[in-house]
Amino acid sequence: MIVHPELRRAARRARRPLLAATLLQGAVALTHLAQAALLALALADLARGRTERLPWLLAAVLAAVAARAGLGTWQRRTATRAGARVRVALRDELLARLGVLGPAHLTTARAGAVRTTLVDGVEGVDAYVSRYLPQLLVTLTVPPLVLAVLAVVEPVALLGLVPALLLALCGPRAWDRLLAARGKEHWDTYEGLGADYLEALQGMPALRAAGAVGRTRTRLEERSAALHRATVAKLRVSLADTGITDLAIQGGTAAAALLACHAVLGGSSTATGTYLVLLLASECFRPVRDLAREWHAGYLGVSAADGIAALRTAAPGVRDTGTAPADWTAPPELRFEDVRFTYGGATAPALDGVSFTAPAGRTTAIVGPSGAGKSTLLALLLRHHDPDGGRVLLGGRPAAEYSLDALRRGVAVVSQETYLFHATIADNLRMARPGATDDDLAAAARTAGVHDEIAALPDGYATVLGERGATLSGGQRQRLALARALLADAPVLVLDEATSSVDERREAGIVRELLDAAGDRTVLVVAHRLAAVRHADRIVVLDAGRVDAVGVHTGLVEAGGVYTRLVEAGRTHRGELAA
Ligand SMILES: Nc1ncnc2c1ncn2[C@@H]1O[C@H](COP(=O)(O)OP(=O)(O)OP(=O)(O)O)[C@@H](O)[C@H]1O
Question: Organism's domain of life (predicted)?
Fold first, then answer.
């Protein structure tokens, strides 16, 4: 019955509607009590053969029933509103947190597990907070009230009711620890299964290509079976809880009835008192029964509470303490000064004393063999991580001095992994600049080399894309992402293998157009295919986390070294392809 701190915190977001929902729930319980008391009086009158009060008593019973119907509806609406407020605020907070944590978080957490926490976990918290908590408060107040009434009317009944009530409320607490452990086990399995399914769906083309669909299905079936086992294990403990509660409720009601009958036989009780015991004893346990029902609805929230707390308090890889606004009057110079960085758990540094300058308003290319540290360099520029040593400066100011939001708005990125949403092409483009006109969209798309293809579609820019842009080719997706980055109009443009899916003949043209359109922006280009970067104002050659050389294409080719090997490798590769 100890409320998890994360759930208490969630409840505080809707304090007022929750209080109203609890009071209304209490009022509903009072209508039950009133109905029981009125029926007891009516039955006692009938037993005595007195009928003059009966119509009034029965009318009052009907009024209690009608009032309960009205109060019940009002209560459910209020509780639903409270739950919705909690749910929306919690999801907002978690999404904002994910934004702060950035992509680095997903190298340790699985997307499917995060989704399960955000969707199912938060739904569970809603049920717990809006349904279980009000019922818990009612359960802690109504039965003592009934006991107090019966203590006056028929004290002997308390001998049966009090122990039963204590057993119903405290007995299941003996299993709390076990229930928590089973709940965690169930939640972890549920989260894992969600993550596996999402991964399998997203990776279906790769699984097909590797002929691994069957194996994956078997693995998912095993996971489903594990979830079934975890659910049954949890249910077993829950059922033991429910069993004890039911036993206490039935036993307590029967004992109270027997004691009341015994009192009648002994002549120490009145008919009214006996009927009151018979009817109120069951009302005394109604909140306990309802609590058990709401527990099942809100249980997921308890299981998810740890995961939600972990996500909400996860420490970001970088601290967002900078305040500079990144509103450079002219495109900034980018400077890396003796930058060192080693990934957590890695033995060798990804970057080991990297220094170079990307001049303001110019295009700087970063090339190097696979694993040289190119992506890491960009990740440090965007502050997905902070360097272990050295500095990254934008416009002469360390990146950490800018607020993360400002920094990420000042740097537009197009990466190899483009993400397009299930929305129209225009909506996907306007994500970068909501106020962009149709002409702006067309101009950006033209520069990115995709306008003609969009215009040829029956619905043009109003064409709805499949999830992740599934209805487009890889090259079209990349060119749309390029257009989106151009629309963002950020003073720094980062192209990370941004044209790798575009065919080579087209690539050179697009890059040329792009660099023209980039105007005086500071552009950083990472590309494997050197044709895409040979015209860059400056080329930085990285190798094994170090700068091997800096120069322009012709100078670097003449100098030999890593760059020449890359050029040679590119030629051989093309030769192979042609063969
Ligand atoms: N999340 C990570 N955890 C541990 N090591 C990593 C991580 N990401 C990259 N590395 C390592 O850091 C080094 C640099 O990787 P990086 O991705 O920056 O290279 P890259 O030049 O971009 O390679 P590619 O051209 O293949 O994309 C590599 O040795 C890589 O294995």
Answer: Bacteria
